[in-house]
From TrEMBL:
<keyword id="KW-0560">Oxidoreductase</keyword>
<dbReference type="InterPro" id="IPR016161">
    <property type="entry name" value="Ald_DH/histidinol_DH"/>
</dbReference>
<dbReference type="InterPro" id="IPR016162">
    <property type="entry name" value="Ald_DH_N"/>
</dbReference>
<keyword id="KW-0520">NAD</keyword>
<dbReference type="InterPro" id="IPR029510">
    <property type="entry name" value="Ald_DH_CS_GLU"/>
</dbReference>
<dbReference type="InterPro" id="IPR015590">
    <property type="entry name" value="Aldehyde_DH_dom"/>
</dbReference>
<dbReference type="GO" id="GO:0016052">
    <property type="term" value="P:carbohydrate catabolic process"/>
</dbReference>
<comment type="similarity">
    <text>Belongs to the aldehyde dehydrogenase family.</text>
</comment>
<dbReference type="GO" id="GO:0009450">
    <property type="term" value="P:gamma-aminobutyric acid catabolic process"/>
</dbReference>
<dbReference type="GO" id="GO:0042802">
    <property type="term" value="F:identical protein binding"/>
</dbReference>
<dbReference type="InterPro" id="IPR016163">
    <property type="entry name" value="Ald_DH_C"/>
</dbReference>
<dbReference type="GO" id="GO:0005829">
    <property type="term" value="C:cytosol"/>
</dbReference>
<dbReference type="Pfam" id="PF00171">
    <property type="entry name" value="Aldedh"/>
</dbReference>
<dbReference type="InterPro" id="IPR016160">
    <property type="entry name" value="Ald_DH_CS_CYS"/>
</dbReference>
<dbReference type="InterPro" id="IPR050740">
    <property type="entry name" value="Aldehyde_DH_Superfamily"/>
</dbReference>
<dbReference type="GO" id="GO:0004777">
    <property type="term" value="F:succinate-semialdehyde dehydrogenase (NAD+) activity"/>
</dbReference>
<dbReference type="GO" id="GO:0004030">
    <property type="term" value="F:aldehyde dehydrogenase [NAD(P)+] activity"/>
</dbReference>
Amino acid sequence: MSTQTDVKQYQMYINGEFTNSSSNEFIQVINPATEEIISEVPSCTIEEVKEAINFAEEAQKEWKKKPAAERAKYLTRLAEEIRKNKDYLARVISEEQGKVLALSTTEVEFTADYIDYMAGSARTYEGEILQSDRPNENIMIFKEPIGVVAGFLPWNFPFFLVARKAAPALVTGNTIVIKPSSDTPNNAIEFAKLVEKVGIPKGVFNLVTGRGGTVGNELASNEKIGLVSLTGSVNAGVSVMEAAAKNVTKVSLELGGKAPAIVAEDADIDLAVKAIVDSRVINTGQVCNCAERVYVHENIADTFIEKIVEAMKNVKYGNPLEDKDLDMGPLTNKQALESVDSMVKKAVEEGAQVLTGGKRGDAKVGYYYEPTVLVNVKQDSQIVQEEVFGPVLPIMTFKDLDEAIELANDCQYGLTSSIFTQNLDTAMRAANELLFGETYINRENFEAIQGFHAGRKKSGIGGADGKHGLEEFLQTHVVYLQRNPNKK
């Protein structure tokens, strides 16, 4: 059910100007808490995507000539404007995406901090000078921008992901064309308004809205794109790789996850329960790096399960713009709600037991799903092997650490993992043997700006954040300088 209320009209941002599409077609954006249409954004054409890429290519010629410190000043001003507009931006995010207002506010603040961090990299990223095998020669490795970056955004942390792609791209001398999710384009366009306000030169930052089959395919397959950076599903990542392959375009992909949480026999149970619940219900479970399945030692399973069920029962959910005292909001769209509901029903049909939740929320409107705990699940079941992306927690038991690590690694994904233990040997063994890009020990799953967020297996290629994430937006240029020894 979708109704129309006061509908905002948004525009794309190409070459420093906001514009509608010549297609005269629009995509409607729905508030997932009320199912009301809240905005319309242009559905642009292939020709308009090419135009944005061409402008970005032309702008990059001058942008890369600016000293990195000068490029960073634009980013610093952008971070300041984001902080000034924090409350407004948070409401825009919550309205279109459904996350609680406190989390939206945190997302905005984190975005500003991230931009500042990347701006600070302007004077620290560096090349190398190597020793040559020849006399009178220097070997120098320069780090240079790649060119035009195509940035594909998901809908779960849509505002932060603009910065995660644009900030490192811009500070290193690239230009960018951003494609936001059609579910959550509003906040990205608000970001573009601030880009315009701080005076980032025309063509350096561009934003096009539209369907993946049109906009996304052109961005990924265009020969002028030097790097495709995508955060999204495995299927989206495969599609981008296929489209980029014909030009051998570099891709950086953060894809799905099915993060295991191991609760050892000696774990602080209360700490584990809080961290796992926080990790599972944040953003209504729509976070690729948060706990998706739990393996608890059989000797403490009864106590752990009793406490985690009670904690999940106490999770409060509702409309994030009507109630500030919430733990989670609705799922972002109707398809997500139907997918989560279908997966839980299938698990029950296969013998899983629902200890709490297990069904859609009672609200007459909105894409709500109850916080859910399942036991009696099987390792090879869909609910354990595939990403749920909702507030659903399947729990299994194990006898020893060998079994726990084997079960945790038995998955197509390899993004994040966690373990709860008071034993250093146990923690370090898990850190060495878990086949994941990240392992969190005795804490919730949430990465740091200065870390490196990267997955293995089907969770992606490349990574983001920190100095290693910055490297994704650079290419090497090796120079061999032979000096004339006879010249005085």
